[in-house]
Design brief:
391 residues; alpha/beta; 8-stranded parallel β-barrel; two-stranded antiparallel ribbon; 14 helices; binds beta-L-rhamnopyranose; Xyl_isomerase-like_sf; Xyl_isomerase-like_TIM-brl
């Protein structure tokens, strides 16, 4: 394929790719040391959606917003979905939260007490009701369940309890709804996390059925883990349901995706593109899961979307024919060079051109800054309590 044709093919694919935004990225967040407030931060889910819609307005590829329950509880979820629609966006995945209620100190779906497990299962059923009211098709489950000390509880009994609880939640889904199960290797539990890795998550979702898949949060692995290998394995099994994109330098840092290691993001997107999983019907949801503790939130989300888009663009520019020929003939350095050529390409002109073709400003950040929206919300949103993750 000629390079010019490849560019056009890349642009066509990029027009189709969508990136889902986390509602919580627009609220205040922080570390265990301090949560810094920022002027203009949303005070309710309606305002979060308004801010998220700005990201879509300037990037053109972020039309869905994921909610977190109970952080985003409202009385009228149909009204919230209509508000989203009026803003040109949709409600995406619904995240459950079984990590902030006092009852869940020793776990939720794995808790030794059947009463607490039932409470955690009921919370997920409430999330399914939110999905019905908002038109969301995906339930996202992340469990903080785990142990701090050897001997604290039975490792195997906890897996059995999780399997049983998940089966009950899965059975509560409608036929056109899906479940995704996220894993994380540590924190808040320090000795064992009950769903620590992709293997454990995969075993659980395979036991549930075809509508259950794995979520890969890029910040949830031990340092040095080869994430693109996991991506390749999950794709082979048809079980990669979603990404939670973010960057980490140390642990679960939740920094902007592509900030810490843009090359890793490219390698991940290369696996995705190689498998055709960037196509909208692939079933892989490209989500962001980030917290903007010190940087302004809307521009940070815009930057993150652009980072995913640029990594995808580079992956789409890989000269597949030459790469395959080099791989098959054992040309180690030749094959590597093909990949690096794509990675080293400056794709910023390509995505700027794409935006112009889509009727957007070629520079989303500058366009957002010029719009005066940040000043407007800072002036308007006075009084009330700013949204935050309340840790
Ligand atoms: C967890 C996990 C979940 C996210 C929460 C806020 O570490 O990544 O996806 O919902 O944080
Ligand atoms: Mn996550």
């Amino acid at each position: 394929m000629a390079a010019s044709v490849r560019t056009e093919v890349a642009k066509a694919a990029l027009r189709q790719q969508t990136i889902e935004l986390p509602s919580w990225a627009f609220g205040n967040s922080g570390t265990r040391f301090k949560v810094f407030g920022q002027p203009g931060v949303p005070r309710d889910p309606f305002e979060k959606l308004s801010d998220a819609a700005q990201v879509h307005r300037y990037t053109g590829v972020a039309p869905r917003v994921s909610l977190h329950i109970p952080w985003d509880l409202v009385d009228d979820f149909s009204g919230l979905a209509r508000h989203a629609e009026d803003l040109g966006v949709q409600i995406g995945m619904i995240n459950s939260n079984v990590f902030q209620d006092d009852d869940f100190m020793l776990g939720s779906l794995a808790h030794p007490d059947p009463r607490v497990r039932a409470k955690a299962v009921d919370h997920h059923k409430q999330c399914v009701d939110v999905m019905r009211a908002t038109g969301s098709k995906d339930l996202k489950v992340w469990l903080s369940d785990g142990l701090n000390y050897p001997g604290q509880d039975s490792i195997r009994a906890r897996q059995d309890r999780i399997a049983e609880s998940l089966a009950e939640i899965y059975a509560a889904l409608d036929d056109d709804q899906h479940m995704v199960l996220e894993y994380k290797f540590f924190e808040p539990a320090f000795y064992i996390t009950d769903v620590p890795d992709w293997g454990t998550s995969l075993l659980h979702v395979m036991a549930l059925g075809d509508r259950a898949k794995v979520v890969l949060d890029t910040g949830h692995h031990a340092p040095g883990t080869n994430i693109e290998f996991i991506v390749a394995q999950l794709l082979r099994q048809g079980r990669l349901g979603a990404f939670d994109f973010n960057s980490r330098f140390y642990a679960d840092d939740d920094l902007m995706v592509g900030a810490a290691d843009p090359f890793q993001l490219f390698r991940i997107m290369h696996e995705i593109v190689s498998a055709g999983a960037h196509a909208p019907d692939s079933g892989v949801n490209f989500m962001l899961d980030q917290c903007h503790n010190i940087e302004p939130k809307i521009p940070a989300q815009i930057r993150s979307v652009m980072n995913v888009q640029e990594a995808t663009a580079k992956a789409l520019l890989v000269d597949v024919e030459t790469l395959t020929a080099a791989q098959l003939s054992g040309d180690v350095l030749g094959a590597h060079a093909v990949l690096m050529d794509a990675y080293d390409t400056d794709v910023r002109p390509l995505v700027a051109e794409l935006r112009e073709e889509m009727g957007l400003d070629p520079n989303p950040t500058a366009a957002f800054t010029a719009s005066g929206y940040a000043e407007k919300i800072a002036a308007e949103r006075v009084g009330g309590a700013q949204a935050g993750w309340g840790a």
